[in-house]
Fold this sequence. Notes:
heterodimer, A: 1 helix, globular, B: alpha/beta, two-stranded antiparallel sheet, 13% strand
Amino acid sequence: MRVKVPIPEPREYRIPGPKRVEEVVREVGLNPESVIVIRGESLLPRDALLEDEAEIEIRPAISGGM
Amino acid sequence: MRCRKCRAPAWLDLPRHRTAFCREHFLDYFRDQVTRAIREWRMICPGERVLVAVSGGKDSLALWDVLLELGYPADGLFIGLGIGGYSSRSREKTLAFARSRGAKLLVVDLEERWKGVEELARRARRVPCSACGLVKRYLFNRVAREEGYEVVATGHNLDDEAASLLGNVLRWQTGYLARQSPVLPEEEGFARKVKPLVRLTERETAAYAFTRGIDYVLEECPLAAGASSLLYKEVLNRLELESPGTKQQFLQGFLERVRPWFEEKEAGPELRPCLTCGQPTTAGVCAFCRLLERAGVKSGESPDLEVKGEEAASFG
């Protein structure tokens, strides 16, 4: 599957499916607690199963400016 | 995973509540948490005007959106901090949001009036985030008072507050611990300051902004790189992943059981008008005017403000 992470620098990964969202998030080195996962116009919960041809965005939710 | 309310496929899981919601019920949950925070802490009274501090990021735009959705009379205030392309992109997103909601946006341009925050911090030899926080707190309050708003609302969420608490505890900053609260009551010269997103995590706020189609600035402020708040959030989220609910318990326990003790012990010093700008301060000259002075900007002069009203209607 194609996995895009837009920040801090845009990155793209190819990860074989099928896999659960949570596994994919961990595989790209992110914490499932600090991201949202987007497919098209929808959000995906952590247990959603992603097939090999899926395209998703993992968007970090954490910001530092307070 | 299915929605707890209607059994439809889940849109977002919430491990700290051991639950998940579909799109519609997640939006209900989000609005309900904001309503509960406003009621619990008596943040906004009927008839009061709210000034929302907006940066173009997910938290402040989500806050402005949800307050408008809930029917509060809420206008936005954007401060142009002069941080290069980041500031101009933030301003564009904020304006686009205001226009899409038909909401009123006020703008103060720091760079136009004085200097950008990076330059001010460099000249005054301060950490940029600390100078930026000081400038924003000063201007939000001053604009609210001068433009007739009773309440200033900021987008601080549960993660922001838990990270701030961790930082204050690690350094035992008892004065900050006494004042850390979802609501700081109004007092002479100060508008009430409220944080209606305090019951919601950063992930939930990002999910709300996405769900509501809010086009926010994704990138991090370039000056915030390496900020200790980011490290504290990372540490707290590692704990949260292993033990869901940790952040909420940490903050809630402090607010309910510990903060009253610090508040009692740490009586705030008396306020008087700043000798330069007339705004309330505990010193002779307020921290904002001292920053300008140290940066060699308009020292000794009253920093009069220019607030540009950017009425959304005029862009339509």
